[in-house]
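Bit of a strange request maybe. I'm writing a small parser for C-alpha cell strings and I need a real example to test against, not something I typed by hand. Could someone generate the C-alpha cells for this chain?
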Amino acid sequence: MRFRTLVYFLLIISWLFGCENLEKTRTIKLAHGLDVTHSVHLALVEMGVDLERLSGGKLQLEIYPSQQLGTERQCLELLQIGSLDMTKVSVGVLENFAPKMKVLGLPFLFRDRQHSFNVLDGPIGKMLLKDGEKYWLKGLGYYDAGSRSFYTINKPINSPKDLEGLKIRVMESVTSMDMVTSLGGSPTPISWGELYTALQQGVVDGAENNPPSFYLSRHYEVCKYYSLDEHTVMPDVLLAGTHLWKKLSTEEQGWLTKAVENSISYQRKLWMESEEEALNAVKQAGVQIIRPDKTLFSEKSADIYAQYKDREDLYKIIQDIQETQ
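Reply from user aminoacidic:
Good idea to test on real output. This should exercise your parser:
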C-alpha cells in the first residue's frame, strides 16, 4: 500500500514539474504563403533559431509555410481573432486592414532600393507599422520584396500601350488595381495560390511580381516574357497579433524584437542573391527578359498621385517619403 502511495506521489510530482516546464515554453505560431526555398521563409527559420537562443528556450517559433493555413488575407483575419500569432504578408494585402499602408503601393514612389530602406527603417516606416494596431495587428518590420514587374504569356511589354486589353493578375489591393488601370491593363484580383492555374487556363494574360516570386512559383513555365519596368517596390511586412503581443512580458517582447531585427538583415542579404539567381534561371528556361524605358511607365501612372491630394494625411506621407534622403 505504501509502495502504491509512493508511486502515486511521484507521478503527481512528475506531472506538476511537467506542467511547469510547459508553462515556461511559449510556442508562437506563424503562417505565410511562400515556398520553403524563399528568402523570407529561410529568414523566418533563422528567426526561430535566434528566438530560442535569445530566450533560453522559453520562446519557440512554429512555422506553417505555403498557405497551409490560408491566403495572406485569411492569415491576417486569423491574427485579428487570435487563432494565429504571427504572419508575413505583402503590403498590398495589408492595405485592406491598415489603410495608410496603401501609399507604399504607389508606382515609382521610391528612387531606388536604398531610398526604400531609408523610408521603411526610419520614422515613416515605423509610423506606418503602428497603423494596424487599432485593427489588432502589431507591425514588427519589413522584409525586402524587391521591385514588381510585368510578366506575360504571349505578348512582350515594351511600353504601357502593350498592356492595353490584357488581363493582369493583381493582389487584392485597390492601389495595385489603380496602377494597372492607369497603365492601360485590366486588373484581375486572384489569390497567389490559384495564379498558376489561372495563367495556364488563360483566365489572365499575365501578372506582376518580383523575380524570385516569378521563378519559385514556376510561372515562367507559362509566361515567356518578363518586362522589368519595376513599377512598384512593395515590401513584405511581418506582423504579430496584438493578442500575442499583450501576453508577452517586456523581456519576451525584447527577445522577439531582436530576433525580428536579425532576421530582416539576414533576409535582405539573401534577397540580393536570390534576385540574380532567379533572373538567370528564368532566362535559361527560355524567358525573354525585357528592359523597357521606365519613364514611359512612370509618366503614364503619374495621375494616380493626384487622387491623394484630397486626403491630407496620406498626401503628407507621400511628400515626406519623396523628401527622404
